[in-house]
Amino acid sequence: LFVSKSAQWLCKLVYGSKLTEFTYGFRIYKVPILLHANFKEKRHPFFLESLLVPLRLGCKIAEIPVSWTPRTEGKSVVDIMTLLTYLRPLFTVRFTRKRKLMTDASR
């Protein structure tokens, strides 16, 4: 729980966002962002990147806040190494020029 909360806090800090959840949850997108975003990630970090690119581009994002509670059953499939792979899109998207976050066809 500490690692997850720390990761959420870091996302809020880097992006200046008030969102409560950056990595998982239900999402609905407008088709153009999905067609024209220049996504790079292929595994777990894609879900983070798929929120950060629209956020960075200034898209409107609405959320139903979530509250984190400790797991009562089972074991998380996400370990510390997986969480570390989230650092790449966290900083890459933040410091990439906005025009490079979109495909050539969308410019």
Structural write-up:
- This protein has 107 residues and is mostly helical.
- It has helices at residues 2-15, 31-36, 45-56, 80-85, 87-95.
- It has five helices and no strands.
- α3 (45-56) runs parallel beside α5 (87-95).
- It is globular, with a radius of gyration of 14 Å.
- The termini are far apart.
Based on the model shown, name its key terms:
44% helix, single chain, globular, 5 helices, 107 residues
End-to-end CA span = 41 Å
Coarse structural class: mainly alpha
Oligomer description? single chain
Counted by DSSP, the helix tally is: 5
Note the overall shape: globular
In helices, the fraction of residues equals: 40-55%
- Computed over alpha carbons, the radius of gyration is 14 Å
Uncertain runs: none
Arithmetic mean pLDDT: 86
N-to-C order of helices and strands: HHHHH
Strand tally is 0
β-strand amount: under 5%
Instruction: State the major sheet.
Output: none
Gist of the model:
This protein has 107 residues and is mainly alpha-helical. Helices cover 44% and strands 0% of the residues.
Helices and strands in order:
Layout: H1 2-15, H2 31-36, H3 45-56, H4 80-85, H5 87-95
